[in-house]
Design brief:
Length: 317
């Protein structure tokens, strides 16, 4: 059974310096009027980081340097598709501030934001940007006629929606050690971190907590989003894995059908029999300056044979 869904991928970035932030006053004709942060859609063939750099330049005239993923905002549409906003922070940039047809952009005191005429949903979105222990804002409703409910996790399909497979992975740390999984699946065999698929109706944080419990017997507390890993396929679809870190947990360690799980010294990870792609994935977990690992097919065509890791190039951002 396919785990693929339709997803519309977007981005937003808080540019900050000396207690001030760049805001955008969106015009009514472009939808979602009011004060927000710059951002837009992820275009075909772009990594998420490339997209936020491009969108911010188009809307503000500023070129971001090393934008950092700080969270995600998402909701499920009534048709089962999902709208996802990747939230970034950045205080390194160049260029001269200028407005665009999306709306006027200007510097504002961060402390003045709550008193401004905000776009709908920005009040709770600010918490993901400003509070380090919150990494997801998820909207849900039981029925189409119900109002939206909001979950801040400490733990009609749009025209830009694409097929996407959504997964997760979590590095659990404890006293210089990390919990690893020796996967037995021949399609992706070797040492990795626990994780799995996002099920319909779940927030990304709920999904990683559930998957981690199913594969290890441990319940993690307050997983924090630290990055994203994705494959961009020639047909426009994507596989997106949300990468989390956690340090607090409870329960008794046990293996699952996915493979044995055990603690190892973090420094020993590079020397183990890693699953394909884990060498570069570890850098997103271990290097604070990195927040995305993106894979591009070398030929531009996925072909009709089996999936081979060596057929892909990758970019760390």
């Amino acid at each position: 059974m396919s785990r693929e869904i339709r997803a519309e991928l977007t981005n937003m970035c808080m540019i900050y310096r000396d207690g001030r932030v760049v805001v955008q006053r969106r015009t009514p004709e472009h939808g979602w009027p009011g004060i927000t942060f710059p951002g837009g859609h992820v275009e075909p063939g772009e990594s998420v980081t490339q997209s936020v750099i491009r969108e911010v330049w188009e809307e503000t005239g500023l070129t971001l340097h090393r934008p950092r993923l700080c969270g995600v905002k998402d909701w499920m549409n009534d048709d089962g598709s999902r709208y996802i906003v990747f939230l970034y922070k950045c205080n390194e940039f160049s260029g001269e501030l200028k407005s665009s047809e999306e709306g006027e952009v200007f510097w504002a005191e961060r402390a003045s934001l709550p008193g401004m005429n905000l776009s709908s949903g920005m009040e709770e979105t600010f918490r993901v940007f400003f509070e380090d222990d919150i990494s997801e804002l998820s909207y849900y409703r039981e029925n189409p006629d119900d109002g939206w409910q909001i979950v801040l996790e400490q733990r009609k399909e749009g025209p830009m929606a694409i097929p996407a497979e959504l997964t997760n992975m979590c590095m659990l740390s404890c006293g210089g050690k990390v919990l690893v999984q020796n996967r037995v699946d021949p399609l992706w065999k070797g040492i990795t971190f626990p994780g799995g698929h996002v099920e319909p109706g779940e927030s990304f944080t709920e999904a990683v907590i559930r998957e981690f419990y199913e594969e290890t017997g441990l319940t993690i507390d307050n997983p924090v989003l630290c990055g994203v890993k994705q494959w961009m396929y020639p047909d426009g679809s994507r596989s997106i894995s949300f990468l989390y870190q956690a340090e607090r947990f409870e329960g008794e360690l046990r293996p699952s059908d996915e493979g044995n799980v055990f603690w190892v010294e973090r420094d020993n990870l590079p020397h183990m029999g890693l699953a394909s792609g884990m060498e570069e994935t570890l850098r997103v977990f271990l290097e604070p300056s990195l927040s995305e690992l993106a894979y591009f097919h070398k030929s531009g065509s996925a072909g009709s044979g089996e999936w081979h890791y060596e057929d892909w190039n990758f970019q760390l951002q």
